[in-house]
């Protein structure tokens, strides 16, 4: 094999390898105290939508439980911590006024159809590829500012698991 062909083959292999190994630009994470927060995100909405859900993962690396007790989102009038649960064969959504406990060594995922943040009174529609500021308030770790990535209307958040702590920011 000639030097030129060998160089071209090596360049092609490197390009393919980088495509699989490079981190996804949508993924982002944060750290506060013993908690790691992975990929806060929401879905794009129609311009007239008044509510949206917020999703992320929280891993407690410490030895004491903590609790996500509240949140804010720059794109909404208020934010509540919610749960979707089956009760008597019916899916119901309810606010969790005491928040969500994150036990030591465990990961809690806020995702569509389960625990989530409810952004109420949207100021405008959420546009795909935007990043909107928010805060997460934990009982022990305190308050941390995060960016919520706006993904497509049908997004399921698959990148959150793959890139849980990519680009972690410490506070």
In short:
The chain has two helices and twelve strands.
What structural class do you assign from the helix and strand content?
A: mainly beta
- Order of SSEs, N→C? HEEEEEEEEEEEHE
Q: Looking at the structure, what is the overall shape?
A: globular
For the record, give the distance between the C-alpha atoms at the N and C termini, rounded to a whole number. Answer: 54 Å
Structural summary, described in words:
It contains 2 helices and 12 strands, in the order αβββββββββββαβ. The protein has 171 residues and is mainly beta. Strands 1, 2, 3, 4, 5, 6, 7, 8, 9, 10, 11 and 12 form a 12-stranded mixed beta sheet that branches. A hairpin with a 2-residue loop joins β1 and β2.
Notable features of this structure?
mainly beta, 171 residues, twelve-stranded mixed sheet, single chain, globular
Question: How are the SSEs ordered, and which strands pair?
Answer:
Elements lengths: L2 H19 L7 E4 L2 E9 L7 E10 L5 E8 L2 E12 L2 E6 L4 E3 L4 E4 L5 E7 L8 E8 L3 E10 L6 H5 L6 E2 L1
Parallel strand pairs: 1-12, 2-11
Antiparallel strand pairs: 1-2, 2-3, 3-8, 3-9, 4-7, 4-10, 5-6, 5-9, 10-11
């Amino acid at each position: 094999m000639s030097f030129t062909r060998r160089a071209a083959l090596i360049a092609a292999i490197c390009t393919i390898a980088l495509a699989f190994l490079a981190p996804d630009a949508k993924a982002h994470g944060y750290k506060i105290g013993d908690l790691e927060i992975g990929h806060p995100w929401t879905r794009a909405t129609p311009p007239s939508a008044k509510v949206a859900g917020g999703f992320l993962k929280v891993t407690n690396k410490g030895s004491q439980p903590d609790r996500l007790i509240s949140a804010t989102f720059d794109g909404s009038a208020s934010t509540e911590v919610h749960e979707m649960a089956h009760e008597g064969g019916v899916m119901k959504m309810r606010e969790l006024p005491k928040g969500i406990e994150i036990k030591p060594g465990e990961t809690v995922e806020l995702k569509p159809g389960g625990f989530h943040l409810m952004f109420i009174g949207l100021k405008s529609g959420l546009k795909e590829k935007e990043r909107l500021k928010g805060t997460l308030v934990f009982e022990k770790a305190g308050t941390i500012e995060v960016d919520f990535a706006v993904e497509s209307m049908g997004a399921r958040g698959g990148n959150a698991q793959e890139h849980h702590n990519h680009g972690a920011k410490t506070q």
